[in-house]
Amino acid sequence: MPGGTMEKRPCALIVIDMINTYDHPDADALLPSARKIVPVVADLIRAAREHDAPVIYVNDNFGQWRSHQGALVDAALDGPHAELVDPVRPDDDALFVVKARHSIFYETPLTYLLWELGVEQVILTGQVTEQCVLYSALDAHIRHLDVTVVRDAVAHIHPELAEAALEMMRRNMGARIIDGAEVTFTADTDRDDDADADAEN
Predict the structure, then answer these.
(1) Where would I find the beta strands (DSSP E) of the chain?
(2) Are 153 and 159 in contact (CB under 8 A)?
(3) Of the candidates 24, 19, 33, the residue with the CA atom closest to the CA atom of residue 78
(4) Tell me: the pLDDT tens digits for 37-51?
(5) What is the dihedral of CA 77, 83, 84, 90, to 10 degrees?
(6) Over residues 125-129, mean pLDDT
(7) Which helix (H) or strand (E) holds 73?
């Protein structure tokens, strides 16, 4: 394929489903974890902007097929948990992809967008660790992207499943599992040797 038209970036911060009304059946179980990660996600967004790294929001459309970025943000800010949305809301430079299913790649233009940007590494944040984050990490891995998952910037519903999901991403997908304080917005493909070996199997 010919080169993309956008300026190349080595990595991108992906913010998954953080524009959220929290009115779904699992919300009560998710909220305590979401509250913990919001400050970390907000810090990562600020750091990415400071380093001119792309910030890409990939967000569920709440089943509203006429919804778009503005409508989704407005609905979340009008909801009962706006305090979890406002610190991580997209700015005018943020990229926004609407999804309908768990994976950020399923039937979305994200693969093409990352190629256009020249992104080699995705840094995953958001919710839910054992669902959308897990499936997105797998889809990124099979697209030959390097995957970093920020453990204190992903929220869970079931703690034990989240821990298992993080280990699966590390062992099976070669993902780097790190804390927000360790994130740098440059391409970093140095991964645990055992994780690399496991991911090849």
Answers:
(1) 11-16, 55-60, 95-99, 121-127, 146-155, 176-178
(2) no
(3) 19
(4) 999 999 999 999 999
(5) 50
(6) 98
(7) helix 69-77
55: preceding bond cis by omega (within 30 degrees): no
Tokens of 139: 């889809």
What's the CA angle centered on 84, arms 132 and 97, to 5 degrees?
45
In 3D space, the residue among 128, 154, 38, 53 whose CA is nearest the CA of residue 86 turns out to be: 38
Q: How many CB atoms lie within 10 A of CB 199?
A: 18
Burial (CB count <10 Å: 0-12, 13-18, 19+), residue 176? buried
Amino acid at 161: L
Across the beta sheet with 95-99, the strand order is 95-99, 55-60, 11-16, 121-127, 146-155, 176-178
φ/ψ of 51, rounded to 5, equals -95, 10
Enter the DSSP assignment of 104. Answer: S
pLDDT over 90 at 196, yes or no: no
At 175, list the tokens.
């993902």
Amino acid at site 192: D
